[in-house]
């Protein structure tokens, strides 16, 4: 099903060099008990947001909404077809607080089978395994998730993306993934900008993992202002090729079609603040070249 340097989108595999400007972490649809009343479940609003991103020059959206949280793969496929955007859809699972209590009873083998089925589906396949982890620790639920992700990666070569709670525990996650034979180069660590510790960030970068700065579509006031400087730090220390950016639009209020900068904001205001420090060529690396490598299927 896949070919060299291919990325799996909701409409099928494409060459990685077709991705173009990529929003490496966002949500068109999301429903979780952790955000009551802020559900992203309106097809019209999701389509309008995708169109706004395309109008800003975007070509690819990576939706990190995993299994069980209202990801709506059929609707994502319809939006991709209508807008001409590439949409990469996640499987996997978030932290326990986002799921029904019964999810805690699922074994790693059971979860791995579901993840692999999502990836290998001939209808609306998934091209990313998203796993949520906790604040400065990994609980049993999360270790099971990581074990399942490792099994799925071994079978399919699909990249693994991690929600790091407030950017923490990246070192613990990398150790767990290494124990389960997932190479850092097939790993995306999300929310790293929310723990703006230079030493910690450089330690994560030294592993070779991709580092995603996500959240400019909504307010993360304590850390937003540090993000451009952190990206500049990584660039000057030789880690530009590992940096990704995304909007992480998790509430209806954050969308550009309501009251937020939303998805197009990644390619507009956020782009401007970053390029003032590192220039246009480096931004192109972050939004085009790096996602093309991070999202590539790497079957063994």
Automatic annotation (TrEMBL):
Gene Ontology molecular function terms on file: hydrolase activity; zinc ion binding
Textual note on the cofactor: Binds 2 divalent metal cations per subunit.
Family to which the UniProt record says this protein belongs: Belongs to the metallo-dependent hydrolases superfamily. Phosphotriesterase family.
Cofactor(s) needed for function: a divalent metal cation
Coiled coil: none
InterPro entries assigned to the protein according to its UniProt record, in alphabetical order: Metal_Hydrolase, Phosphotriesterase
Name of the protein described by the UniProt record: Phosphotriesterase
Source organism phylogeny: Bacteria, Bacillati, Actinomycetota, Actinomycetes, Micromonosporales
Binding residue positions for Zn(2+) 1: 25, 27, 130, 248
Pfam family, one: PTE
UniProt entry tagged with the keyword Repeat: no
Residues annotated to bind Zn(2+) 2: 130, 163, 191
Positions of modified residues (N6-carboxylysine): 130
Entry keywords, A to Z: Hydrolase, Metal-binding
Source taxon at top rank: Bacteria
Organism: Dactylosporangium sucinum
